[in-house]
Amino acid sequence: MANTSASSLQFTEDCEATNQELYKLFATVVIVIFILALPLNASVLHLFIFKLRFWKSHTNNVFLFNLVLADALLLFCLPIKAYNFIQGRRRSGSGAVCKAMLFMLFLNRGASVAFLTVTSIDRYFNVVHPGRKNLLRALKKSPEISILIWLLLLPLTIPTMLKDFDCCRSHRHDDGGTLIKDVVDGLREAVFFTQILLPFVILVYCTVHIIDRLSKKTVGDKTKLRRAVFLVMSVMVVFSFCFLPCTVARLVLLCVRVHELSGSNEDTAVVAFDGLMVLSYMDCLLDPLVYCFCSTKFKAVYFANYFPFLVKGAPAALDNSRRNTAHQLRDNAI
Q1: Which pLDDT band, with edges at 50, 70 and 90, does 1 fall under?
Q2: Tens of pLDDT, residues 273-316
Q3: In this structure, which topology does domain 2-294 adopt according to CATH?
Q4: Where is the chain membrane-spanning (predicted)?
């Protein structure tokens, strides 16, 4: 009984913010991300559903819609996360809220990574192997592959949907760890790291080969290849800025806790991990800006519908341009 009480006390201490002023700054950043990302993602979702009707498209619109949908899941979590930080806690004190938050956060992360990766692979085949038939090119014409991706993400999310994952208590010696606990901890951390590192390797491979294809093309129109390079490079920027830093920070935090280093080192590692996790929430803001708007056609439709005063020309010409651009966007890959 005493061991249980001690474990509960340690767990509570692990989830308390050691520097409350700094966590209030984290909360401010989270609120700013939420304020900027909410109207942006809402407008993009509205455009996909009511203007482009993505389900009728034979392009990457289906993948992009699911990417924005994944980012929308994260938006529901940000106000709660900001409130916890303001209260001086790293997570919610409610077990149900904590599990729901972790489920949404990691489902968002997994879906964002998956759809960014799938779309980059599709672009790789279109550019590097344009004449080769591939399964992805056939499947992307229907929503089945997107549904399959969401279903595959669910079992990968379950291992992370635990309280002690949020407070990073994996492989702690003071928990009286057993073999089963070590195996569960190892599996949970393996899911977390594989979910980021494996897609990153795939993205590097696709990027290198697309750039190489561009450098070898001496004749013909290079515009499509340049857009492809910009697209995959943009995805690399999102990964490098949002996902890799928090992954490295978690690895450092695990090393600090496994080797039982000094308390000050552990506090620093915890704050760094939480701060970089806040940075990872930027993906819901960067995905629409960097990925969707890398297409000039999509950008034209977006501005024509939501910011027509920024588009030069008469209203009649604008309406014709809007209709023509929408039709082109449905008929051509983004």
Answers
A1: very low
A2: 899 999 999 988 888 877 676 667 778 888 888 888 777 653 44
A3: Rhopdopsin 7-helix transmembrane proteins (1.20.1070)
A4: 26-50, 62-82, 102-125, 145-162, 190-208, 229-253
For residue 40, pLDDT beyond 70:
yes
What is the pLDDT confidence band of residue 88, given thresholds at 50, 70 and 90? confident
The 3-state secondary structure of the chain reads CHHHHHHHHHHHHHCECCCHHHHHHHHHHHHHHHHHHHHHHHHHHHHHHHHHCHHHCCCCHHHHHHHHHHHHHHHHHHHHHHHHHHCCECCCCCHHHHHHHHHHHHHHHHHHHHHHHHHHHHHHHHHHCCCCCCHHHHHCCCCHHHHHHHHHHHHHHHHHCCHHHHCCCCCCHHHCCCHHHHHHHHHHHHHHHHHHHHHHHHHHHHHHHHHHHHHHCCCCCCHHHHHHHHHHHHHHHHHHHHHHHHHHHHHHHHHHHHCCCCHHHHHHHHHHHHHHHHHHCCHHHHHHHHHHHHCHHHHHHHHHHHCHHHCCCCHHHHHHHHHHHHHHHHHCCC
For the chain, give the mean pLDDT.
76
